[in-house]
Amino acid sequence: MTPLSPALRPPRPGLFTRLRRDYFATPLSALTSLFCVGLLGFLGWTLLDWGLLHATFDPAARQAECRAAGGACWSVIANRWRLILFGLYPYEEQWRSALASGIVVITMVLSCLPRCWSPRRIALVWGLGFGLFYLLMKGGIPGLPLVREEQWGGLALTLFIFVSTAIIGMPLAIAFALLRNSRLPWIARSSALLIDTIRSLPLVSILFTFAIVLPFVLPDFVLQEKLYRVIAGSALFFAAYQAEIIRGGMQGVARGQDEAAMSLGIPYHHRIARIVLPQAFRNALPATINQFVITFMETSLVVIVGFFELLSSANAAFGTSEWTFAFVEVYVFVAFLYFIFVFGLSRYGAYLERRMATGQR
User: CATH number of the domain at 82-357, please?
Assistant: First the structure.
């Protein structure tokens, strides 16, 4: 159906007309709208008054001064931000953790640009970014003292676990999805059993198993640092869920396209890479972005196996008697950091949906 030209389209109603139609069409709708606006206004003013107008920003202020002001005590952030952001990382080397975190963020931004979407460029961007991150965090070369993984913490550790999980888990998820769609029944059923088994277990139990149990059942030469075992368990958990998301996207691709490609003699790997998977990822894009968001937030679970990631570093920041009263401010600060990354992921997903809807490459 040919769309109408702009000259023939009916005029769009004005803002006042749309507000009256959507929110004040009936007396009940008007009352509900006014109540919600009033409630939001009250909450907004309360947060503004607590967080800014009557807040304490003086780094030298303590509990007495903060209580007297009656608002938030941001002094805890001014005094404990290093512990929150860097965890147990050596104080003199914390510039390396900050620089490594910045490199990861820049790498993520570059990989979101359309001009970097070729396999060679994306591999180059992630290879350089991840390599520089690991070199800075680990050290062990002239000029950079060695810092063992047990000392990593804060934001850098959260980003490392998230990025490693995604880099390892996504190719594994694609392999799982293809194996489950195999025409050979024994391969498809074995893959389905593996995926369903992993999905039936909570992530906490998988992390505990990889971090604590595996050293008792595997020989020493197979084991690596505990951090890498935790990342392997997290990636396996991510891959099981993402495989089902990709498989759902593949089911949305018309079967006739694959059959037509087979009739033309196109090899299997070309059919999958150029016909099936691009459309499957387009169909599964909202669920994929949601899975990335969940994975980023689930990095906080590594605290159960002894790692000092962002949230556990925040808990330590107010764990002393001097700052016990300021736990709300610390959690608000950490929530803001999580919000920046999660909101960025969701907005990028919305951008990709709009871009794919218009058929751009």
Answer: 1.10.3720.10
- Encode pLDDT of 222-277 as tens digits: 667 888 999 999 999 999 999 999 999 988 888 888 888 888 888 888 888 888 88
What is the Cα 114 distance to its own chain's centre? 20
- What is residue 300's three-state secondary structure? helix
Token output for 157: 């550790």
How far is the C-alpha of 18 from the C-alpha of 148, rounded, in Å? 59
Distance CA 142, CA 140 (A): 7
Task: Kindly list the domain boundaries of the chain, sorted by start residue.
Answer: 82-357
Q: How far apart are CA 222 and CA 210, in angstroms?
A: 12
Closest alpha carbon to 300 in 285, 310, 290:
310
Contact 163, 104 (CB under 8 A): yes
Token couple for 86: 């860097």
Tokens of 20: 């009256």
Determine which helix (DSSP H) or strand (DSSP E) holds 224, and give its type and residue range.
Answer: none
Q: Where do we find the tokens 């107010």?
A: 318
Distance CA(15)–CA(200), nearest Å, equals 49
